[in-house]
TrEMBL record:
Membrane topology reported for the UniProt record: Multi-pass membrane protein
Keywords from the named record: Cell inner membrane, Cell membrane, Membrane, Transmembrane, Transmembrane helix
NCBIfam families according to UniProt: dctM
Protein name per UniProt: TRAP transporter large permease
InterPro entries: DctM (IPR010656), TRAP_DctM (IPR004681)
Lineage top rank: taxon: Bacteria
Keyword set includes Iron: no
């Protein structure tokens, strides 16, 4: 019976999505109608209380603050400066500019929190530079799209914030847990570029221009603000000086100081920044509320609990269940955006994962890497469409094919962290 009701919910949701109804609204409709029909019409009063309680939660203040910080930073030339400096230090390594794009995305991710914003900001400067010296368009686009996915793994991360809210897991611990996996994933992406170019040097001609050591050292001055801001946001959480919400507030102030010092935030830009922040925050809150509606109804119907009991009763190892869950999320990632996956899938599978004795922080990192893979896999890979929009003269087929090369290192990262949970849990363990 549990599976039949769950199937009815999923089919109803899919029909609404196919009809073009926004994800947040679809979740809300399924929750309200399902609750009224299967529980009681009076339950709608409880849903209104859930909406008010969730949207006024102090914990959720962290989301608009990090979104605002991200918008402020992306309105400046910090991404351009970061790529230029990394490019100078990598010099004539095989695939240097491709690796520079990935490393720049990693650095930008530490002050951003959004995968599409990271890909777009670095892509606008990195892809033209690679094309200028004769890089394969597919390699240039794929490296940047894959590097952009680090925006939701390396903290601060909007995806990890939403996961923390849904599962009531410490957002600070999730942020810290993402650091080592994020660095490891960046290294795997760079290694992939190195191997591809080593096998076929024509894909990425070496940079001919020589850069003196003095220029490299001087260039570091331009990225100092990024390092300071990243430490201010993440370092303050790690040493226990601030909560994630307080660090987000510090991050906004730090970002404002940086862009005002650079004289790159006029009244017109500020208006755009605030407008984008409101739009993104509104979408975030609607997804949370819609997801909570559906989650509340499913929980009242004991569907997640029933599924968890059924799965826990199966005579299969726990790791096999985790593999199945990850495969399902990977498949869904091809058709849904990351935030939708979180609000739809996580509330259903989370009780099972906890019941099997797995760490919720570790599971959060696995889910995030799954969403990274989804961001560069068709037909609904967000980063693919973002890069196509910022570099309109490229073919969509080149964006897709170039990105598929980098699914392998992302899968490798998922498998490694799945087998060795300590990679994600080491830094949080030091905090406790």
């Amino acid at each position: 019976m549990d599976f039949l009701m769950f199937g009815a919910f999923i089919v109803s949701l899919l029909l609404l999505l196919i009809a073009g109804v926004p994800v947040a609204v679809s979740l809300g409709i399924v929750g309200i109608v399902g609750g009224a029909l299967l529980i009681s019409p009076a339950m709608i009063d409880q849903l209104s209380q859930i909406a008010f309680t969730q949207s006024s939660s102090f914990v959720l203040i962290v989301a608009p603050l990090f979104v605002l910080m991200s918008e402020i930073i992306s309105s400046s030339s910090i991404g351009t400066r970061l790529f230029t400096v990394v490019q100078m230090w990598l010099g004539r390594l095989p695939g240097a500019l491709g690796m520079a794009a990935v490393i720049s995305c990693s650095g930008f991710a530490a002050i951003c929190g959004s995968s599409p914003v990271t890909a777009a900001t670095i892509g606008k400067v990195a892809i033209p530079e690679m094309s200028k010296i004769g890089y394969s368009e597919r390699l240039a686009l794929g490296a940047t799209a894959a590097g952009g996915t680090l925006g939701i793994l390396i903290p601060p991360s909007i995806a990890l914030i939403l996961y923390g809210v849904i599962t009531e897991t410490s957002i600070g611990d999730l942020f810290i847990a993402g650091i080592i996996p994020g660095i490891m994933t960046a290294i795997l992406l760079c290694f992939t570029i190195f191997v591809i170019v080593l096998k076929n040097p024509s894909l990425a001609p070496a940079v001919q221009e020589k850069v003196r050591m003095k220029e490299r050292v001087t260039g570091l001055i331009h990225v100092t603000p990024i390092l300071i801001l990243a430490f201010l946001v993440i370092g303050s959480i790690y040493i226990g000086m601030t909560t994630p919400t307080e660090s987000a507030a510090f991050g906004v102030v730090g970002a404002l100081v940086i862009v005002f010092t650079m004289r790159q935030l006029g009244l017109k830009n500020l208006s755009t920044v605030l407008s984008n922040t409101v739009k993104t925050t509104g979408m975030f809150f609607l997804l949370v509320i819609g997801g909570m509606f559906t989650s509340f109804v499913l929980t009242r119907l004991r569907i997640p609990q029933g599924m968890a009991e059924f799965i826990l009763g199966l005579e299969v190892p726990g790791w096999a269940i985790i593999v199945i869950i990850n495969v399902l999320i990977l498949i869904l990632g091809m058709f849904l955006d990351p935030m939708s996956i979180l609000v739809i899938v996580v509330p259903i599978f989370f009780p099972t994962v906890v019941g099997l004795g797995f760490d919720p922080i570790w599971f959060g990192i696995l889910v995030t890497i799954n969403m990274e893979i989804g961001a560069i896999t068709p037909p609904v890979g967000f980063n693919l469409f973002v890069l196509k929009s910022v570099i309109p003269n490229v073919k969509m087929s080149d964006v897709v094919v170039g990105s598929l090369w980098f699914v392998v290192p992302l899968l490798a990262s998922l498998i490694i962290i799945g087998i060795f949970p300590k990679i994600a849990l080491y830094l949080p363990s030091l905090m406790s």
